[in-house]
Write a structure and sequence with these properties.
Layout (H helix, E strand, L loop, with lengths): L1 H18 L1 H10 L7 E4 L2 E4 H16 L20 H20 L3 H24 L3 H26 L24 H21 L3 H20 L3 H17 L1 H19 L2 H4 L1 H10 L9 H18 L10 H5 L17 H33 L5 H15 L8 H19 L5
Antiparallel strand pairs: 1-2
């Protein structure tokens, strides 16, 4: 019965996408967690998120007859909206992922390759070609707000009911909300970058209706990170806002005195003043006892992963190969072997090998240059996108901000927004 409902919903999605492709794009964004809706099509496992992306891609090819205009040239071409440098990086990104798939070939790895690499790039292509003006851009931004809004409503319902009750994140342990997900950080990783994105939009918007909408959505996103009790997300949000208040020219004079007062107030509380030293001690001298903190567990993970990479320096462990590769390097038995090392650099290194890590760094350098271009042109999305990327990166230092269906799409949403914002010149 549920599968029938999903197929009917997919039909509605296809019709809406055919009438107006940007609505299909917005629907995918608003329903990013729909990868949790799993079904079989002709005995092949898939997700509703995957079906939406593939359906929209086919609709786009047929409706606008793009299949007749496909150009695989890597040279500069005015009809190709993806710059040559980025085209090369994305091609090499796919190539690195195929090598990683060959390192650890399995049906499970193939499914993850589709979800983490092939489909996100398909989505990126759709985004770049479908979003053509500031009205399309506004629809996309609103869809991000809708995503955060319904996640907040679901989290509130979870808080006051027993729905999606997960004992590990409830009494006697600290209560941590997950909304539709199976663990709290899945919620925080999706919402943290968007919280600062909307906070910055709120501070810069001149339209009263938009301004209040941005603020409301931003508060929803911050609340979700707080209710998930994700220390990494909250630290990343606070750090990004600190950078914004210090560097943003229009508010710098007012914000510096406020931050000085805030900083002095923090120092007056001994426990907060000792926080940086405590973090350093947990990283440099982690406890291996049952009372070890999450940061100490991360430290042990990184140390063991470093030893594993000494023996697998070039190719890493391959897609979906980390847990198996770590078995002979794992020392502390009571700590589980996680799916990933929980560090943005180690995550890409073990999954995609050294070559994949270098391509990721290349993408980050490209993003940095694109953001600088937005600042040079005084684009209104310069700060929102910069803060979103910064939060994504800082949180990723202690977590896994990419290797999940919705998070890989979020990465390419940010990348596509960064590219499209440069092309929509009138939206400044």
């Amino acid at each position: 019965m549920f599968n029938l409902f999903l197929l009917l919903l997919l039909l509605v999605f296809i019709i809406a996408s055919y009438k107006k492709p940007v609505l299909g794009l917005a629907g995918i964004i608003a329903l990013l967690p729909s990868y949790l809706w799993r079904l079989n099509i002709f005995s092949l496992p898939t997700t509703f998120l995957e079906l939406m992306i593939v359906s929209l891609f086919v609709v786009w090819l047929l409706k606008e007859k793009k299949y007749k205009k496909i150009n695989f040239s890597l040279k500069n071409n005015p009809q190709n909206k993806i710059p040559p440098r980025l085209r090369w990086l994305l091609l090499l990104w796919l190539f690195a992922s195929l090598i990683a798939l060959a390192v650890n070939p399995s049906y499970a790895a193939l499914g993850l390759w589709r979800a983490y690499f092939l489909e996100p790039i398909m989505f990126f292509i759709l985004f770049v070609y479908i979003v053509k003006d500031k009205n399309d851009l506004k629809i996309i931004i609103r869809s991000l707000g809708i995503l955060l809004s319904w996640l907040f409503v679901v989290a509130l319902y979870q808080n006051f009911s027993s729905w999606n009750f997960i004992s590990a994140y409830n009494y006697p342990n600290p209560k941590r909300l997950t909304a539709v997900f199976s663990y709290p950080n899945a919620l925080a990783l999706l919402t943290a970058p968007l919280s600062v994105f909307f906070l910055s939009l709120w501070s810069k918007s001149k339209d009263k209706k938009d301004k209040w909408w941005y603020l409301l959505v931003a508060l929803f996103a911050v609340a979700l990170a707080y209710l998930a009790v994700s220390e990494g997300a909250l630290v990343a949000i606070i750090f990004s806002l600190f950078i914004y208040l210090i560097l943003a020219k229009k508010i710098r004079k007012a914000s510096i005195p406020i931050f000085l007062v805030f900083f002095i107030a923090l120092l007056s509380f001994s426990s907060l003043a000792k926080y940086p030293l405590s973090v350093w001690q947990q990283l440099s001298q982690p406890s291996s006892g049952l009372s070890a903190t999450s940061l100490e567990i991360r430290s042990w993970q990184w140390q063991e992963t470093g030893v594993m990479l000494q023996d697998n320096f070039v190719f890493g462990s391959g897609i979906n190969g980390y847990q198996g590769a770590m078995e002979k390097y794992h020392q502390i038995e009571w700590i589980e072997i996680y799916l990933y090392p929980h560090n943005i650099f180690l995550n890409f290194w073990v999954e995609l090998g050294l070559f994949g890590l270098l391509i990721f760094l290349g993408l980050m350098f490209y993003v940095s240059g694109a953001l600088k271009n937005l600042f040079d042109n005084k684009h209104k999305l310069a700060w929102p996108l910069s803060l979103a990327w910064l939060t994504w990166f800082v949180h990723g230092l202690v977590d896994v901000p990419y290797f999940k269906n919705d998070l890989s799409i979020l990465f390419f949403i940010l990348l596509a927004l960064t590219l499209v914002a440069q092309q929509i010149k009138e939206d400044r």
